[in-house]
């Protein structure tokens, strides 16, 4: 699954265009590397998202094309 779509489906970022802009602006890293929005995400990857001054680090637990709002939190675990 594409990184921008994963961020939207997991509800880490609310809109896909915002996720694309964050990736293009080098505010999202996968396993320590800044990547483009089309970068593939797989289970076990560590994502770091910088929201202003505060970074959010999560580990991908599950990749699914569609999930319900209540189940979106099960797609990742917050590391820090």
Structure description:
The protein has 80 residues and is an alpha+beta fold. It has one domain (3-78): RNA-binding S4 domain (Structural Genomics Hypothetical 15.5 Kd Protein In mrcA-pckA Intergenic Region, Chain A). The protein is built from 2 helices and 5 strands. It has helices at residues 3-9, 16-24; strands spanning 28-30, 33-34, 46-51, 54-60, 76-78. The chain has a 5-stranded antiparallel sheet. Strand 1 (28-30) and strand 2 (33-34) form a beta hairpin. The N and C termini lie far apart (23 Å).
Strand order of the largest sheet: 2-1-3-4-5
Note poorly predicted spans.
none
Shape: globular
* Cα end-to-end separation: 23 Å
Oligomer state of the chains in this structure: single chain
User: Roughly how many Å is the radius of gyration?
Assistant: 11 Å
Structural class: alpha+beta
The fourth-level CATH homologous superfamily is RNA-binding S4 domain
Average residue-wise pLDDT: 95
Q: Note the total helix count.
A: 2
Q: Please report the first level of CATH classification, the CATH class.
A: Alpha Beta
Number of strands: 5
> Which CATH architecture would you pick?
Roll
Highlighted features:
2 helices, globular, 5 strands, five-stranded antiparallel sheet, Structural Genomics Hypothetical 15.5 Kd Protein In mrcA-pckA Intergenic Region, Chain A, alpha+beta, 80 residues, 20% helix
Compact overview of the structure:
With 80 residues, this protein is of the alpha+beta class. It is built from two helices and five strands; from the N terminus they run ααβββββ.
């Amino acid at each position: 699954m594409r990184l921008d779509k994963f961020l939207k489906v997991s509800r880490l970022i609310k809109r896909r265009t915002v996720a694309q802009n964050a990736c293009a602006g080098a505010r999202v890293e996968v396993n320590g590397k800044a990547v483009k929005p089309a970068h593939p995400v797989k289970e076990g990857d560590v994502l770091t998202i910088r929201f202003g001054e505060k970074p959010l680090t999560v580990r991908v637990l599950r990749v699914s094309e569609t999930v319900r709002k209540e189940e979106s939190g099960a797609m990742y675990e917050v590391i820090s």
